[in-house]
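Let's practice the habit of predicting before peeking. Look at the sequence and jot down your guess about where helices and strands might fall. Then scroll down.
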Amino acid sequence: MIIFQDNLFAGRSKGHRVDEIVEPQPQQQHIRDSQATEAQYQAILNAIPDPIFRISRDGHFLPLSKQAPDTACSGKGLIGKNLYNILPTDVATLMSEIILKTLDTGILQACEYQLSTPLGIQDYEARLVVSGLDEVLVMVRDITERKQTEIALRNLAQKFSTAFNCSPDPISISTLKEGRYIEVNDSFVKLSGYERDEVIDRTTWELNIWVNEGDRTKLLQELQTQGLVRDRQIRLRCKSGKIITVQVSAEVIELDGIPHILAVTHDITERQQTEAKLLQAAQQQAELYQKLTDLNANLEHQVQERTAQLEQKMQELAQMQQIKNVVLHTVAHDLRTSVIGNLMVLENLGMGSRGDEKQSPVPNPQSLISVPRSIIDRMIQGNKRQMVMLDSLLEIHSCQEQGLKLHCQLVPFGGMLETAIAGLQPLLNENQATFTNLLPQDLPLVMADQERLEKVLINLFTYSLHQNPPGLNFTLKATVEDGMIRTYIQDNGVTMSQADCDRLFDLEIRDPQSPCSTAICLRMYLCRQIIQAHGGQIAATNHPQQGLTFWFTLPFSSYSRG
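Done guessing? Here is the structure:
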């Protein structure tokens, strides 16, 4: 009798004998078919790596096949023996109970047991199925390795569970796709404020945990590309609405083939607050230090400013002393010279009058005194120079005391120059001087005090005329560059050293024998004061064999280029 192997796996209630399912055939054909079928199933039995036994209801081992009682799977040496003769009593009793249960229910049964072997305690699993009347087919498998693996997995799971539940940091497991919470630990409950049953099977969107919805999208993108995230700062919302800052470390794990996120969260809200307080304290200290530094710098600046003021006062005193010296020199020399000249004229007139008295012993108080015209002209020129010098002294004194006051207005610079030159024409004609005007036609407007600028031009031309013989030639030019108008007045007269050019506009006492008198020096000094008050510069340059060139600059108005 052959038992179908599929009964063993399908768990049928009873085994079916071959002669019960084979339809009547001719005797020889029936025998051949039976032999082929038995050979096939015997081959299957031999191919199964697990030991297979036939055991009777009373626990005796039976051969698997009458034709091949000693095959590898038949358990050679066990046939005819009882379970209690081979197995420990507790195992034999367990097997006997399972055999009876299998025969009584007709359902596949399984049990596990342990045996002591030379390799140690081994675990086995026995599967029993009805194979005939009052007999079962038993397949035994060594499950020692599987049991050890299960124990290791249980230990690992226990360790994970312990670490998961005892961790002081919140830990959660949620689905990767939806963010649905599968498990959370007590720390997560404590931090979030939600009860465990309020969180499980709900998504992060439903709980509105993410303050910034884009944070989870970025987290998912990084997990999908790298598989893990470390110390990502994220802001979360608790049940109470409180916003906290956390550091999240997460990895993708698979549970039952579904990707999940294992996330460990560390609350850094207090740490950030502490850091903010420390930063604020550091900033306050920095501000205090900066204030101290500024105070020290301010004190230094005040000292420097005071020192500069003192130096300025000393310079002003020196200038005042210089002005005083100029005034004293003027009074003592120039005015005294004029007085001496007047005395000489008066003495000559007096001597002339005395000569007339010899002819007429009785003087006539109404008689006229004749004075040569040249003497009168010199007296007039001397008095004019004195008036110009006195006016210059008064103007310099006013500048020193009150500052130079300008009455500026917007004027065309080229037209202003031409007007000033026209006023100088009698002086030029008197000295037989010629004038060449090379001014551009499109000179811009300037904001200037026209009267004072005309005085500058008169003083510059007058200087050259007084220092040179008649027949002098002047050239007037102007250029526009870097927001300034630069004006050149060039003559072909005598030259001077560059050192004299550099100090031409300084206020100083001139030597009586110097070609540049003190009166002219005063007027040149005023020229520089006027130009600088307009925001420009003035100087003189020496050109060997070409004469002297005066130049000055003035800023032009922004309206002139509109």
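How did you do? Confidence is low (pLDDT under 50) at residues 1-24, 66-74, 357-363.
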